[in-house]
Amino acid sequence: MQPIGPLMHEHRLIERMITLMGQELEWLKRGEEPDLRFIDHSTDFFLYFADACHHGKEDQLLFPAVLAKQDLEERYRKLTVRLQREHIYARSLTQRLEEAAHKRRTGGGTESVQAIMDALHRIVQFYPRHIMTEDKEYFHQVMECFGKDEQQTLLREFDEVEKRVLHERYQDMVREHEEGQQGRKP
C-alpha cells in the first residue's frame, strides 16, 4: 500500500462528516434549533481526527519530506505551501464553529445560530475543494518523488500517528450520526 492510501481513506470519512454538517446547515436554514451535541461531535472530529491525525500526518511527516526533496518541481513546492496554509485556515473554521456553539449554549440569541450557520457553511464549502486538490493534484504526483523504502517509512510513521488519535472512535461517531439522521428529513 502506498503511504497515501490511509490519507485518501481518511478523506472519505471527512467527506461523510461534511455531508452530515451540510444536512445540519439545511435544517438550521429551515429554522430548526442547532443540534449542539452534533456540533460538539463535529468540532471534536475536526480538531482531533481531521487536524491532529489527518493534517498532522501531512504537516508533520509528508509535507516536510516533500519539501526536502531537491528535485521537486516548483509547482509541487508551491502546492505544498498552499496546502499548509489551508490547514491553518481549516483550524480557524473549526475554532469558529466551537466558539459559536459555546455562545449558543450560554444564552446566545439568533446571532449565535447565525454564527453556527456561517461556520458550517464555510467548512462545507472549503473541505471538498481542499480534498479534491489533495486527491487529484497532489498525493499521487508527489509520491513519485519517493523511493519504495521512503514510502514504507512514511506508511509506518502514518500508522503511529493514527494509533494515537483512535481512528475507530471517529468512524463510530460518524456512523452514529448518519444512522440518527435517517429519521430526520433535510
From TrEMBL:
User: Pfam families, from UniProt?
Assistant: Hemerythrin
Superkingdom as given in the UniProt entry: Bacteria
Limits of the Hemerythrin-like domain: 6-140
Q: Which InterPro entries would you find in this protein's record?
A: Hemerythrin-like
Q: Which GO terms describe its cellular component?
A: plasma membrane
Q: What is this protein called?
A: Hemerythrin HHE cation binding domain protein
Q: What is the species of this protein?
A: Desulfocurvibacter africanus subsp. africanus str. Walvis Bay
Q: What is the lineage of its organism?
A: Bacteria, Pseudomonadati, Thermodesulfobacteriota, Desulfovibrionia, Desulfovibrionales
